[in-house]
Amino acid sequence: MNVKKLYYSISEVSKATNLKQYVLRYWETEFSQLSPKKNQAGNRKYRETDIKLIYLIKELLYDKKYTINGAKQYLNNKKTSSISSNTTLSDILLEYKSDIDEILNLIQKLK
Question: Which domains does the chain have, with CATH numbers?
Answer without folding.
Answer: 10-110 (1.10.1660.10)
